[in-house]
Amino acid sequence: MKIPKSEVIIPSSVTPVLRKIGQMAEALKTPAYAVGGCVRDWLLGLAKTPDLDVTVEDGGLVLARRAAEALNARLTEHQQFGTATLDISSPRMQRVDVATCRKETYSKPAAYPKVVPGRLTDDLFRRDFTINAMAVLISPGTFGRLIDPFKGKADLSRGCLRVLHSRSFVDDPSRILRGIRFLKRFELRWDAHTRGLLLQAIASGLLGELNVGRLERELGHMFDEPNPRACFDALAELLDDAEKISHGK
Q1: Same structural domain for residues 205 and 142?
Q2: Which long-range CB contacts under 8 A does 20-24 form with residues at least 24 apart?
Q3: Same domain, residue pair 108 and 31
Q4: Is position 6 within any domain?
Q5: Residue 173 belongs to what domain range?
Q6: 21-73 pLDDT, tens digit each
Q7: How far apart are CA 195 and CA 115, in angstroms?
Q8: What's the total number of domains in the chain?
């Protein structure tokens, strides 16, 4: 797969930490990447990044342990997921989640995924939308280079929210609710094919497959958005359109 390359301006507030982690990853002979929502926000020119996600293709837990020692950070390991969280208090409080690249498969709709080791493209492909499926290299010599195999930057530029594959909402129906939040927060519009998949998923009752805890968590996140009413109005509109589909109107 040909991967487009360009540079991303990383905020100065997080540059020292990311450079340090990138250097330590290079010593372990693995490239390191900032991934997900932070990349999206940097491309939008948003400097405030409360949480950072870093992934490497090998040895995420080893890297996290070394980074915790070097940065005098509090380390919390999540052995079952192969991930760790660094809470760095100096010079300002920063939280960094460190993981090893992985791929996911789903045994049935709305099930928790089975996770196995993967490469960077696998890790990006498991994400919810293309605008969240980008990475930025933080290794020395390539610091700030964008990795964008699914054209998330182009979708962000044209204000479009698009899933990565046709089973996205079947695998994880909570992506419907997350998508609404992104749509309203960043003033985006649904990709036509994505909206069709979304309505079909709702009409098939897939939101009802989510367990209560996941559903409550996603709805709670909606209340935390800058304009929660717009989110719930958008959800009501989608539910109404999906009902028309289910009744063949």
Answers
A1: no
A2: 20/67, 20/70, 20/71, 21/54, 21/63, 21/67, 21/96, 21/98, 21/138, 22/137, 22/138, 22/139, 22/140, 22/143, 23/139, 23/140, 24/63, 24/66, 24/67, 24/70
A3: yes
A4: no
A5: 159-246
A6: 999 999 999 999 999 999 999 999 988 776 799 999 999 999 999 999 999 99
A7: 27
A8: 2
